[in-house]
C-alpha cells in the first residue's frame, strides 16, 4: 500500500514517485493476500498516515508497516524517518514478519521481446553507452552541454552513444545535438519501455539524471554514472560503487532566489545539479567503460536477474507473492500474483 506525500526539496527521488495505477493494483493484490491468509504487510512511502487506518480495518490477524510520528501505529511498525534508503526501509518492514533479504539491489528480468526491440536499433558488435537527459523534476536535470561533453568523451573512446529522450525532454536533445561532435543514436520521441530495457541490458553503461531509466539500468545489471542531489542519493542511490558511481550536488539554496529548500520549497525549477562538473562524470564513465572491456570482465556474468529463494517466516510462506514488472519505471505497473 502506498500513498501520496508532498515532495521533499529539491524534488522527490525517482524511486518515491508512485503512479496511481500502481497504488490501485497494490491495494487489490495485497487485499487478496490479507483475505486469503489473514495476515498483512503494509509499506507506505509517506509513513502510514492514511494507509495504516485502512490496513487495520481489513481485520487481518497481524499488521506490519511504517509509522510516521503523526500516523496510527500498526501491530508491528518501523518508525518512518524520511532520510533512509528506500530499499532498506521496506526490507526492514519485511523483517518484522520474518522475511529475509535476497539482495541489496532490485533486480529485473529482461525478456526476448526487449532484446529483439533493441537489436533492431543497435549496431552489432559495438560497445554501447547510453545517455538519459531527463528527470520528472527539472531541478534534477543536468545541463545538456554537460551530457554532450560526456558523450563526446565516450565517442572518443570508441563507444556508440545512444540517447533516450521523450516528451518534454526533446528540447534538451536538440541542444545536445548542437553541442556534441560525435553522432549518436536517438531512440525517438515515442521510445517504448521494452526497447529501453533491451538497450540498457546490452549497454556497457548509462550516464543519467536521478530518474526511472537510471534505476531501471541498475535493475538489469548495467553499470551507471548517476547525477544526484545530495538528499535524493540517501533515499534512492545505489549501495555499491564497483559498477555504480553517483555524483553529488550539495546545493541547498535555490539558484534563483536563494531559498534554503531544506526548510521551504520555492516555486522555481532551476537545476540543483548543474554544478556537478562534466569532468567528474567523464572520469567515472571512462573508468566503467574500460572495466567493461577488460578480458577478465568479459567472461564474468552480469549480476543475476533472478532473486534467490527467500526463507520466510512460516506465517508468510502461505502468502502468494506479488511481483512487479518494470512498467513501474514508465509511470505504470502490472502486478501479478503467483
UniProtKB/TrEMBL annotation:
Gene Ontology biological process terms in this record: lipopolysaccharide core region biosynthetic process
Keyword Phosphoprotein appears in the UniProt entry: no
Annotated CDD domains: GT9_LPS_heptosyltransferase
GO cellular component terms, semicolon-separated: cytosol
Annotated coiled-coil segments of the chain: none
Gene Ontology terms, MF aspect: ADP-heptose-lipopolysaccharide heptosyltransferase activity
InterPro entries (UniProt xref): Glyco_trans_9, LPS_LOS_Heptosyltrfase
Short name of any one Pfam family annotated for the protein: Glyco_transf_9
Protein's recorded name: Predicted glycosyl transferase
Source species taxonomy: Bacteria, Pseudomonadati, Pseudomonadota, Betaproteobacteria, Rhodocyclales
Region of interest: Disordered: 1-22
Keywords, ordered alphabetically: Glycosyltransferase, Transferase
Highest rank taxon of the organism: Bacteria
Keyword Glycosyltransferase: yes
Amino acid at each position: 500500500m502506498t500513498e501520496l506525500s508532498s515532495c521533499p526539496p529539491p524534488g522527490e527521488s525517482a524511486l518515491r514517485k508512485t503512479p496511481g495505477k500502481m497504488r490501485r493494483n497494490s491495494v487489490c493484490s495485497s487485499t487478496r493476500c490479507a483475505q486469503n491468509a489473514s495476515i498483512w504487510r503494509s509499506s507506505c512511502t509517506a509513513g502510514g498516515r492514511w494507509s495504516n487506518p485502512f490496513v487495520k480495518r481489513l481485520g487481518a490477524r497481524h499488521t506490519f508497516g511504517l509509522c510516521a510520528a503523526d500516523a496510527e501505529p500498526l501491530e508491528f511498525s518501523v518508525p518512518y524517518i524520511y532520510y533512509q534508503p528506500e530499499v532498506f526501509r521496506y526490507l526492514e518492514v519485511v523483517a518484522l514478519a520474518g522475511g529475509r533479504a535476497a539482495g541489496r539491489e532490485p533486480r529485473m528480468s529482461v525478456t526476448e521481446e526487449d532484446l529483439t526491440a533493441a537489436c533492431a536499433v543497435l549496431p552489432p558488435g559495438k560497445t554501447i553507452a547510453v545517455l538519459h537527459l531527463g528527470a520528472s523534476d527539472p531541478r534534477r536535470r543536468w545541463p545538456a552541454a554537460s551530457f554532450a561533453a560526456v558523450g563526446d568523451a565516450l565517442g572518443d573512446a570508441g563507444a556508440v552513444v545512444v540517447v533516450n529522450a521523450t516528451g518534454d525532454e526533446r528540447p534538451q536533445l536538440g541542444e545536445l545535438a548542437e553541442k556534441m561532435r560525435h553522432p549518436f543514436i536517438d531512440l525517438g520521441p515515442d521510445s517504448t519501455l521494452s526497447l529501453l530495457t533491451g538497450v540498457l541490458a546490452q549497454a556497457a553503461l548509462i550516464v543519467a539524471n536521478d530518474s526511472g531509466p537510471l534505476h531501471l539500468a541498475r535493475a538489469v545489471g548495467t553499470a551507471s554514472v548517476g547525477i544526484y542531489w545530495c538528499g535524493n542519493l540517501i533515499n534512492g542511490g545505489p549501495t555499491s560503487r564497483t559498477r555504480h558511481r553517483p555524483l553529488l550536488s550539495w546545493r541547498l539554496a535555490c539558484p534563483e532566489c536563494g531559498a534554503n529548500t531544506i526548510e521551504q520549497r520555492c516555486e522555481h525549477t532551476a537545476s540543483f545539479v548543474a554544478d556537478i562538473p562534466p569532468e567528474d562524470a567523464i572520469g567515472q564513465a571512462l573508468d566503467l567503460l574500460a572495466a567493461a572491456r577488460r578480458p577478465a570482465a568479459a567472461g564474468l556474468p552480469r549480476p543475476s536477474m533472478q532473486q534467490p529463494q527467500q526463507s520466510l517466516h512460516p506465517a508468510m510462506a502461505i502468502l502468494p507473492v506479488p511481483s512487479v514488472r518494470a512498467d513501474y519505471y514508465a509511470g505504470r505497473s502490472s502486478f501479478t500474483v503467483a
